[in-house]
Design goal:
The protein is of the alpha+beta class. Helices cover about 45% and strands about 10% of the residues. The protein contains 24 helices and 16 strands. It has helices at about 1-20, 35-40, 80-90, 105-115, 125-135, 140-160, 160-170, 180-190, 200-205, 220-235, 240-250, 265-285, 285-290, 295-315, 325-340, 375, 385-400, 430-435, 440-450, 450-460, 485-495, 495-500, 530-545, 605-615, and strands at about 55, 60-65, 70, 180, 320, 345-350, 355-360, 405, 430, 500, 510, 520, 525-530, 560-565, 575-580, 585-590. Strands 2-1-5-11-12 form a five-stranded mixed sheet, with helices on one face. A five-stranded antiparallel sheet has the order 7-6-16-15-14, with helices on both faces. The chain starts with a helix and ends with a helix.
Length: about 625
């Protein structure tokens, strides 16, 4: 009877305040068609928690976090029953009986608040707290409290008690920028919530009641006092015996606070960019952009893609990558040790079997989100283009042998007369000698025989974004292009010399949602570029370059090693690209604003970087 009387009193009180306060303030504008608005707003389809996305290395270990605040999601079946019991007992003992608000609690709060000039006590249920966190914010006014009741009631109509509790435990604040029970477990103990003991569960359950007062880092003792109080509440609600409670209180609590994981910024930044490409590929944005007829249309599609990308990132996906941490560390270390403060550089390493990008360094002492030279810098390729644009097409067309002879002396076509390095005139040499020593005269002759159009058809399967029709000149045979290629693009192209097939390389293996469902993965078939015979011959020629040619200073002892080097006009760029039996790596060294580097040529920085990575 007392409960019934309490409900009647509260409902009457609510109606009085609704009439007097809502009519008197702007809040009334929010109540027009309130029920319809609530039904639309409070829906499992519209609940969208902002979650942290994780980047995983090849072993499944997190190496970077994307999106703040830090929030991991724990589904209902991953939340221990003990945690549910302790939070219900401490925050809302009648959770499973009420309809969204607790009449008795509200009455007690009203009586107490009448003594003060502002709200001191809210009498909020778990459902009301959820409404506040999801929709209303933390403002404490009578109007807002009344609105909160409507939202809480609608939540109860729309969701089951288990769904409400699951959401609540994933949105509540645990101090230090931490939201949700799984996040708190990982942050304070570096363990999943399913791995916590009951004492640890009670400890972190103490925080949400007053995240400032019960901050475990700054106020550990106060948090421990509240933990013991919560354990006593479980005794009073018959969830624990006194003996069990005393044992739990004595279990030592040792914090193991995690720092934000933000390793390998070069690779992480590339992964974020690739994720956008992956979404565009899978959801049709890429095709739309290719078919867009105006700049305005392209801009609109790009904006839609960016919005979709942000939605995916904020949904808490797990991005599985091919990153090999040890190789990534070695790549970054090699680059930084060989370059001085004025130089820049980049490296890309691809696994020969999977064609995955396993390491990538974006610049000297690279900082996340800075310009990444590995995939954003487009430079003249110099002689590293010769195997792709000249020698492989020539061998493919004429079935030439690597010991066939070619004149390597200076050769002019019209006014175009490139000179050999050092001005040498070697006469007739074998194809393998010509490539190993990187003679320009023979490269121009061979391209003339192949034909410019045929040569460029040969490289059309590769992902050379900035190659244009303006590049179709004989100057391209020795690396003269309008814009050039990125280190990633050139390294990818060299993977065609693994087995004659080309497949665009990727860092991302797959992307899963927080429930483990695969959302995205690349689905591309390899393209045949070179015949088996041509591939075999080019591999032998690249090996010649590694053992006795211009790549000798980068040589490493492996079952197979093939290297091609490149130096552009006025020593603006140094390249070393090559492959072993297991990896393909490209290295670029230069300045952001190109300038002459002849004074460091003898130091062979690009050779040393490549060698250090591939040892």
């Amino acid at each position: 009877m007392r409960v019934f009387a309490g409900y009647v009193t509260v409902i009457s009180f609510v109606l009085i305040f609704f009439t007097t306060l809502f009519f008197a303030t702007d809040e009334w504008n929010k109540v027009q068609s309130f029920q319809q608005e609530l039904e639309h707003t409070v829906s499992t389809d519209t609940i969208d928690l902002n979650r942290t996305s994780l980047l995983l290395d090849q072993d499944g270990k997190v190496f970077s976090e994307v999106n703040r605040p830090y929030r991991l999601y724990a589904p209902d079946d991953k939340i221990p029953a003990f945690l549910k019991d302790i939070l219900v007992a401490s925050e809302d003992q009648h959770f499973y009986e009420h309809v969204g608000f607790d009449a008795g609690a509200i009455l007690r709060a009203v009586v107490k608040n009448l003594v003060f000039t502002h709200i001191q006590q809210g009498g909020s249920t778990i459902t009301q707290q959820l409404a506040r966190n999801l929709y209303l914010g933390q403002e404490k006014t009578y109007n807002r409290k009344l609105t909160e009741l409507f939202y809480a009631h609608e939540i109860e109509q729309s969701l089951s008690k288990d769904e409400i509790l699951e959401l609540y435990m994933n949105v509540i604040y645990f101090s230090n920028g931490v939201y949700g029970i799984e996040t708190a477990s990982q942050y304070y103990f570096q363990k999943s919530v399913t791995e916590l003991n009951q004492a640890e569960m009670a400890f972190i359950a103490s925080i949400p009641n007053n995240p400032g007062k019960y901050d475990p880092i700054d106020h550990f003792d106060q948090t421990k006092v509240r933990q013991e109080r919560l354990i006593d509440i479980l005794v009073s609600t018959s969830k624990l015996s006194k003996d069990e409670a005393e044992k739990l209180k004595k279990v030592p609590i040792t914090l193991n606070v995690r720092k934000k994981t933000d390793l390998y910024p070069d690779y992480a930044f590339y992964v974020e960019n690739e994720l956008k490409d992956l979404i565009a590929f899978n959801e049709g944005f890429k095709l739309e952009l290719e078919n867009a007829s105006t700049a305005e249309e392209k801009k609109r599609i790009a904006e839609n893609l960016e919005e979709r990308f942000q939605d995916v990132i904020s949904s808490g996906v797990r991005i599985q990558t091919a990153l090999q941490p040890a190789l990534q560390q070695k790549s970054v270390r090699a680059l930084n040790e060989q370059l001085n403060e004025e130089l820049q550089g980049a490296t890309v390493t691809i696994d020969n079997n999977t064609r995955d990008i396993v390491a990538l360094s974006g610049g000297m002492n690279y900082q996340k989100y800075n310009f990444n030279h590995a995939f954003q810098a487009f430079r003249q390729p110099g002689s590293v283009i010769k195997p792709l644009l000249v020698y492989a097409p020539y061998i493919e067309k004429f079935k030439a042998g690597i010991n066939d002879k070619v004149n390597a002396n200076q050769y002019c076509i019209g006014e175009y007369c490139p000179v050999n390095y050092g001005g040498v005139q070697p006469g007739k040499v074998t194809l393998k000698q010509s490539l190993a020593q990187s003679y320009n005269g023979s490269a121009v002759r061979l391209m003339e025989k192949v034909g410019i159009e045929k040569a460029f058809q040969s490289i059309s399967p590769f992902s050379f974004e900035k190659v244009t029709s303006k590049d179709k000149t004989y100057a391209s045979s020795v690396g003269g292009f309008t814009y050039g290629m990125s280190p990633l693009e050139l390294t990818e192209a060299y993977t065609s010399f693994i087995n004659g097939r080309y497949q665009e390389s990727h860092a991302i293996v797959h992307v899963k949602d927080y429930n483990g469902k695969i959302l995205y993965q690349w689905k591309e078939d390899p393209k045949k570029v070179w015949s088996q015979a041509t591939t075999s011959k080019i591999r032998k020629m690249l090996n010649e370059g590694a053992t006795v040619g211009t790549g000798k200073a980068a040589y490493v002892s492996k079952p197979y090693v093939g290297i091609k080097t490149g130096t552009t006009n006025n020593y603006h760029d140094y390249w070393v690209i090559g492959l072993t039996d297991s990896l393909t790596t490209g290295v670029w060294v230069g300045h952001d604003i190109p300038r002459n580097m002849s004074q460091i040529e003898h130091q062979r920085p690009s050779h040393k970087i490549w060698q250090e990575i591939m040892k």
